[in-house]
Design goal:
Layout lengths: L2 H4 L6 H9 L4 E5 L3 H9 L4 E4 L3 H4 L11 H12 L6 E5 L9 H15 L3 E5 L5 H9 L4 E6 L5 H4 L9 H17 L3 E5 L3 H10 L4 E4 L7 E4 L1 H4 L17 H18 L10
Parallel strand pairs: 1-2, 1-8, 2-3, 3-4, 4-5, 5-6, 6-7, 7-8
Helix pairs in contact: 3-5, 5-6, 6-7
Length: 272
């Protein structure tokens, strides 16, 4: 029997650990607003990530770097108000935790207090361990994020697959172990070779969520605008589009305009 059927209560970090131990895959999607999050939650998706990808899909920025802490809290609080079951994880935005563990703690507390989110996510490995430790001392759950880390895009200079070379792969393995040891409840692995991701998932006891990391991990995450086909310009290999909402929405808007122009809308039954 699945965790969903036997335990319809709220998903917690402990639930995710139980799912990994039972060999049950974890589903995770992004959401940034009340209406979308309500539907995602109704679909029994296990984890909702309020991603800093809001910088791209909601605000139109080229990278995730410009989004602010207050903007992330706005999106997260909108999502939390919609959710009854899913675990809500909130990305800590660029500049809110790197290099200063006291600022990291302050940022995490602000997110938790003002948004009502259930956990935070941070990009990086051993270089941010001090910040993670400090946040964990406040009782705030932390999800890690390794591999392609979009907040470091200017350092990498490209969005290509990470950890293909042995040296970088070994460093990723060491980072994953360090994140587990320090107390992270889960790790996202983004755009790394499938064999490496599977190896990491087997080596550590906490759940590993993949995006472009193959099927040998404990769960998957996608950006909702990508998997729904709203954003039709983004077509990486790892993305499976479950709908083509761009085409459906475009047609609906065009039909509406035509009905307004022709005088067909509103008709007598739609008037008072």
């Amino acid at each position: 029997m699945s965790v969903h059927a036997s335990n319809p209560k709220k998903i917690t970090t402990h639930t995710l650990l139980e799912m990994k131990q039972a060999g049950q895959k974890i589903s995770m999607l992004t959401a940034y607003d009340y209406s979308m999050a309500k539907i995602v939650d109704e679909a029994n998706i296990d984890v909702i990530l309020v991603g800093d990808s809001a910088s791209n899909v909601m605000a139109g920025h080229e990278t995730t770097l410009p989004i602010t802490l207050d903007q992330m809290i706005y999106h997260a609080s909108s999502v939390v108000r919609a959710v009854k079951r899913s675990l809500v994880v909130v990305d800590m935005p660029f500049g809110s935790y790197q290099g200063n563990s006291k600022e990291a703690l302050s940022s995490a507390i602000k997110i938790m207090k003002e948004s009502g989110g259930h956990a935070v996510k941070m990009e990086g490995g051993q270089e941010i361990l001090d910040s993670i430790k400090r946040i964990l001392t406040a009782g705030i759950p932390v999800m890690g994020h390794l591999g392609l880390t979009p907040q470091s895009i200017y350092k990498f200079g490209t969005y290509v697959v990470r950890a293909k070379e042995d040296e970088e792969a070994q460093r990723l393995i060491e980072d994953a172990k360090a994140l587990e040891e320090v107390g992270c409840f889960a790790i996202v692995l983004e755009k790394i070779p499938a064999a490496l991701a599977a190896k990491v998932a087997q080596m550590i006891s906490i759940p590993v969520i993949g995006i472009g990391a193959g099927n040998g991990v404990d769960g998957q995450v996608l950006v909702i605008h990508d998997m729904l086909g709203i954003n039709n310009e983004f077509n990486p290999r790892f993305l499976r589009k479950y709908n083509n909402l761009h085409a459906h929405m475009l047609k609906a808007f065009q039909d509406y305009k035509n009905d307004v122009q022709s005088g067909d809308f509103p008709n007598a039954s739609e008037s008072y």
